[in-house]
Amino acid sequence: MGDSKGSLLNFPLLKSIGDLSVFKDNGEYGILGAVVVGILIPVLLSALFMGKKRVKVRGVPVEVGGEAGYTIRNARKTELVEVPWDGATTVAALFQQSCKRYSRNQFLGTRKLISKEFVTSKDGRKFEKLHFGDYEWQTYGEVFHRVCNFASGIVKLGHDVDSHAAIFSDTRAEWLITLQGCFRQNITVVTIYASLGEDALIHSLNETQVSTLICDSKQLKKLYAISSRLTSIQNIIYFEDDGEVKDTASGNLSKWTVASFSEVEKLGKESPIDPNLPSKHGIAVIMYTSGSTGLPKGVMITHGNIVATTAAVMTVIPNLGSKDVYLGYLPLAHVFELAAESVLSAAGCAIGYGSALTLTDTSNKVKKGTKGDASALQPTILTAVPAILDRVRDGVLKKVEEKGGLAKNLFDTCIQSPTSFCQRKLIRFVLCGGAPLSGESQQFINICMGAPIGQGYGLTETFAGAAFSEWDDNTVGRVGPPLPCCYIKLVSWEEGGYMTLDKPMPRGEIVVGGFSVTSGYYKNEEKTNELFKVDEKGMHWFYTGDIGQFHHDGCLEIIDRKKDIVKLQHGEYISLGKVEAALSSSNYLDNIMVYADPFHNYCVALIVPSHQVLEGWAQQAGIEYKNFAELCGKAETVSEVQQSLSKVAKAAKLDKFEVPAKIKLLPDAWTPESGLVTAALKIKREQLKVKFKDELQKLYECSI
If 654 and its partner were Cys, which of 238, 323, 397, 649 is the partner (CB 3.0–4.6 Å)? Predict the structure, then answer.
């Protein structure tokens, strides 16, 4: 999303805050007037007339089968929701009905690339800059015709419908068309991150015996390099991109049948064949988990799973429909984005595609003077992972700090209010998922945007369908009640000290049961039997490994994770995820991994510091350095960051043993491409421990 935390501030919905246009440099009277009119008056009126709110019951206890525990269902539905409407039992049927219902409405939008150029920075590095035009749209009816053409074309090309196809591409309109085309021929699709490394890519394709691979044209060189290690590929279909030379790519891949996406569409249009529609129990997608705790596992997701989550989320987002515009930029190979687009397409929304590197006016790949995707599209609905929202918050606060004075004091006071001061409101709903969102960031973004954040909790194993906070819930730090498609049960975990009889709230491992729970892991019966259970009534349950607690209104809060808990030398338990979440509020941090060796009585941490914040401190402190790596290695730099962590830890009321006694500052960012974080920007703990084994060992070598 850019190197600096402030790079997202040109997002339209945050521009008035990021530029602090409510705090114009026009004297104290102008500042005070803007704040009083925009913030203080609504706050005072709200306090006078709202009074004390009654607590709304959002989830209620229910008796279910399976292992004993404390179970909650959504308060609005007595029976679990399975479909959005009659006849939509599969993704193929749901999509066909939506396209018929909204045939003339805008559906998929893509920006026209006008030009690309390379600019050279002061240090000699070259950066690609793109000049985009406006969005060009296809209607639901037009997209459905393309889906039908691709469905016929892939079979005519020679794909065996009893074998798997894989999509290995960045998010784009053709990705969704390919997926729906495969579904019309009952072809199971394997989804693969475009950033996946060679070994993981080979493992995914060979394990699932993919015979047809659909990819970006830029991936062709990578496929050529590993072609001798791929055992089942027969056909390659590539999306055409500007500047790619078809003949060269095809020549390198002569061992396979290679065709462009448009050629396959044309083949299907000229020789249409009847659809071979799936059943609700059929496997729609084998989606590989992001692998934050080890090698990725292929989750088998049925058509019924996707439809159930879609139906449930449609009941949660208010007034969702054809007037809404959605910006799609997260990886469609991630369950969060695929679930979101399934919901939006079922509701008749318009989906405009962008990318993380072209999202805002100041994004890395956007040519100066060109609008970013968000400015050009002006979406009403947005998805974001917590890491992005945390960066937005940090960037805005930095701007406020720079202003100082009365502006800062008023901002700090008013940000505690639930009343919005962002008058140029575009976004009306934000879907947040992929990782826990801090209460501070949720409250901050909620107020600044003037739009509710629907914070969701789910996993690939539940097709993102578990819990979802409701639009009128202003509380923070929670993920809402169970979605209407499932139950959520807490099961006591005695070893960790989390029990369903705990007061004031029941606590335990989160177990999800219902229509969104998937079929298990592909060719991994041992892990499937360990984490998936079927009760005496035939209901499927998934044991998440996450620890939660239920509030009195039936809303779930995630408080820990079993795999993140380490017992120290003197018997204290430390939750690594909890400590990382608390320390992440330090302005110096871009990323952090806390590590605890059970043979010691303290923890340590690897930290990727914010370039902008750390270099700003160095300039003020008069620290001289040749490059950022040298700055990270200086003792005074480490000491400054350590002191910041101590202050944050004290505010978060962490115990002494939870505060890292030693830290190592690492100059290079952790990215999905490096394999050190997931596509949702969650750290991959095992991979980090392997890569930085020597650094972690050195942190423990010297006594403290």
Answer: 649
